[in-house]
Specification:
Elements (H helix, E strand, L loop, with lengths): L1 H17 L1 H4 L6 H31 L7 H21 L11 H31 L6 H28 L4 H10 L3 H15 L4 H25 L4 H22 L1
Amino acid sequence: MKVLFGLLLPFAGTTLGAMMVFLMRSGLHRTVEKLLLGFASGVMIAASVWSLLLPSLELAKAQRGPVWMPAAVGFFLGVGFLLVVDRFVPAPERSAVLASRKTMLLVFAVTLHNIPEGMAVGVAFSGALLGNAGVTIAAAFALSVGIAIQNFPEGAIISMPLKSEGLSKGRAFLLGTLSGAVEPAAAVITLLLTAAIRAALPYLLAFAAGAMICVVVEDLIPDAQAGTHTRLATLGVTVGFLVMMILDVALG
């Protein structure tokens, strides 16, 4: 039940964001969004190191070949995967004024970008369940919370433009929620696969780290640093990084 709850946390973040269509006339306040994006970035950066890359290196010690090889290969493939995705589906722009066709492309883009995040959560919980991957349940939960925070504004920026285009609040909320449904599905599939192919876990952990860092560098930080109030985003990154590091080290 604990693992199931952890796998569903990112989906809950998207759902809560989509619920803003019932409570607000306009989008999420920009200063709040910057703080949340910065915090989520800090959490994901720290999680990539302590919850994914370091356990990948630890597991690789029991395998043949250079210890750094699985982490390096997996990380490179994770970044490459996200770059290929962005080549065909541009990253979502939270500040854009969206036409109908662009809104549906945004729904597709956010949905597609949620897949590697779900994979990262699945890999983290898989490592924790295996018991020898250097990943704790607490660290996996912290990673899941960080992704959930990032998903909150994503749910809002899907449901609100759809409402402004004439859809009912219920349908706009449903589409915003469904964009995050791929995350628990990807997490469960990854969880099952990593349990079956234990030898590939060092590569999968690093792959998830590379995908997450790519999301942070390509999407979160540029959006958080755009325009004014950039120091709020920097503060959010600092606090998020420290919170994740302390949780992982203290509870690990």
